[in-house]
Amino acid sequence: ECSPYAAHLFDAEDPYTPVRHLPGLCFTYCSDFHTKCHSVVKYLTNSRTLQETCEKDPSHFCNLINLADQDYCYPNVLRNNDLYSNLGKVVEDTKGCLQLCLTEVANGLRNPVLMVHSGDDTHRMFVAEQIGFVWVYLKDGSRLEQPFLDISGEVFTTQWLGDERGFLGLAFHPKYRNNGRFFIYYSILINGKLEKIRISEMK
Questions:
Q1: Beta bridge partners of 201
Q2: Phi–psi pair at 17, nearest 5 degrees
Q3: Which pTM does this prediction carry?
Q4: Is the pLDDT score of 83 beyond 80?
Q5: Which domain of life is it from (predicted)?
Q6: What is the CB neighbour count within 10 angstroms for residue 11?
């Protein structure tokens, strides 16, 4: 079962932060993990630094994989009711080793910015690209050939790295199944020079 805080444990929210090879473990838990499970580290990461440090200096190894925000390191994240109440469980195996899983939902997309469902019991997921396409993914993981929405001709985007303008939001009406209404939020350029944000109702 996947942790609902996997993005925090892997410190993956900030695109400018290097990708973590291992989840953030609180120091005390990491020390226990190292004692019981250090032999599996070489199978979990190809980082030579982490592998060598794990073998030579357990304390430094645990400092390397710890998180700056102690609220989100494991297992502290399980003990904060404000963060963890009513969410899924992070489980351990019989040796006390952390079990996390990541499931790939989609790939080959051009800067995806959101994934939402329509609340109509069809189990479809709608994935939007910043350039103005919205794709439908079915329960089996397949993607419909034609986009659900294409407003790429209206959305204002640039080639600048990190530019957040473009298709920014999608929300379905609570009664979408009956009325087919949904709402989109995106950047536009008027007369080639005036930048605006537009919110549109679609049906």
A1: 183
A2: -85, 130
A3: 0.53
A4: no
A5: Eukaryota
A6: 18
